[in-house]
Amino acid sequence: MSNMSLLAIGWEPELRGLLTVIMGVVVLMGSIYMILATNIGSRLSFLVTLTGLMGWMMLMGLTWWIYGIGLKGPEPSWAAIPGQTIIQDVPALRSAGALESLPNGYEDADPGELHELVAEEFLSEGYIRIDQDNPAYGQAQAAASEFIEEDGALNAGQYEVTDVFDVGGERYPLIANNESLDFVAFFHTPHYTVVEVSPLVPVRTEPGRAPATAEIDDEAQKQYVYMVRDLGAKRQPAVVLTIGGGAIFLALCYLLHRRERILKHNLSSAVATA
């Protein structure tokens, strides 16, 4: 195989992207520059074209910033709490900070009763129970499954998510404590979620038969996945583009203004001398 063939296979996306950028620069900025160069000269037309480009980038970044579109940063997601994400017994809920106090009588309760005691304690401490038809339930379930399988506590098919508890995440400051007036609510309280995971009874598969329906093992200790919400930085690229493009745009506008003043001064001096 020739070297050109290897280049086409290995670098075709990169070369095509590079050529697309070059063509876009030539068509968009090059055409404007050529038109202006025929009227105001090559140096001044370059400065005017670059100023217009920076102004356009500032407006584009501002639009992305407002609507959350275009070039995006990391999306919000559930993140692990180092060393405290996988909780395999009830006392560890307090040591990890998920609960302020342990439920009364949990030492003598059987696994079925313990589930209800823990749920009541979560609700009494301000947590809310997420319904299964809520999209937040599915997001927390997917994140918890990833963490618990990466940790090796349980494998896929060995557990089922049975409850999700959520607390925090309130926005502030609010105008007149009205949730609909959140124009300046740029800050958030820490947002936590606890996902309850129930081990399943091992199912024996037989050749030629459909696997039996998995059942929750009522005698097994339930496990919990403790996570914190990472708000991400979805609008960060747009913010950088807006501020950077705006700063360069203003600097170039100042240069054009300064050039105009110097030109007027030189012309007036020439007229006075004549």
Give the % helix.
40-55%
Task: Give the radius of gyration.
Answer: 31 Å
Q: In sequence order, what are the helices and strands, one letter per element?
A: HHEEHHEHEEEEEH
User: Which stretches of 5+ consecutive residues score pLDDT under 50?
Assistant: none
Number of domains: 2
User: Count of helical segments?
Assistant: 6
Strand content: 5-15%
Care to count the β-strands? 8
Task: Describe the structure concisely for a colleague.
With 274 residues, the chain is α+β, with helices and mostly antiparallel strands. The protein has six helices and eight strands; from the N terminus they run ααββααβαβββββα. It folds into two domains: 3-71 and 236-273, no CATH class; 77-230, no CATH class.
Describe the protein in words:
By secondary structure, the chain is α+β, with helices and mostly antiparallel strands. The chain has 2 domains: about 5-70 and about 235-274, no CATH class; about 75-230, no CATH class. It contains 6 helices and 8 strands, in the order ααββααβαβββββα. It has helices at about 5-40, 40-65, 90-95, 110-125, 135-150, 235-274, and strands at about 75-80, 85, 130, 160-170, 170, 185-190, 190-200, 225-230. The strands form 2 sheets. Strands 1, 2, 3, 4, 7 and 8 form a 6-stranded antiparallel β-sheet that branches. Strands 5-6 form a two-stranded antiparallel sheet. The chain is elongated. The termini are far apart. The mean pLDDT is about 90.
